[in-house]
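User: I'll paste a sequence; please echo it back and then give the predicted structure.

Assistant: Echoing your sequence first, then the prediction.
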Amino acid sequence: MAPDPIDLLHENAERVIGVYLLETADGPALFDCGPSPRIGTLKEGLRARGLELEDLRHLLLSHIHLDHAGAAGVLVREHPALQVHVSEIGAPHLVDPARLEASARRLYGDTFDALWGELAPVPQENIRVAGDRVLGLECFPSPGHASHHVCYLGEEGTLYAGDAAGVRIQPHSTVLPPTPPPEFDLDVWQRTLDEIERRDPTRLALIHFGVATDLPRHLDELRRRLDDWVARTEPGVTEEEFNESARADVDSGLEAYERAMPFWQSYAGLQRYWEKRRAA
């Protein structure tokens, strides 16, 4: 199947979170699943492609952040045969999401339930730790945005990139780095971009949002902006100052970008990065 995002209409807005249906040697698989409140929209998107939830055999997760994997446990509860592929680091947090939920509730406060809904545990027997090969796709660690992030590369050249290749709400052209706390690491992310470029994919399937084919320009802009955002948030820069400068980076589609990656989150992650550097 050609990569084509199922738009989950997050917060009833288009082109914020999209997930991907792909065909494997062991049947249909879904790349990332979005949060629980969007399961109805996900099912509608599957039906539009001639499938029901129960037709899926596998769920491939890039990482366990709630906009990518929040619905995993609820989906397995509805479809107990679904196999969930996730990094070894992320797997325990799917089996027991209590710490993940507590951390997210501290971050999102009263908006948590409307945004992310229920976090149900994924039974251990449904977990498959992602190794070097997953269902015919190359799988490789891609930390920087999150320590537990992995990407999947299809033989036809599609890189299912999660957040490792940044946010670009197509048809807009701006590429931004989502840097939420607590695990953003500049040097590690730059090495991940080296690994992506070494594999020379032909297209990027982005959760936020759409398929990009101009990879050299896209990845170069992401590299430069990672360095720039770290430099512009040295201690003493306020959240308001950063947010204003980040908005100025966006050529068009600002509202969609701010929905997909709220700038206050990126500021918090960048400040956490500087705190860890000072502590070291």
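The longest strand covers residues 18-24. The chain has a mean pLDDT of 95.
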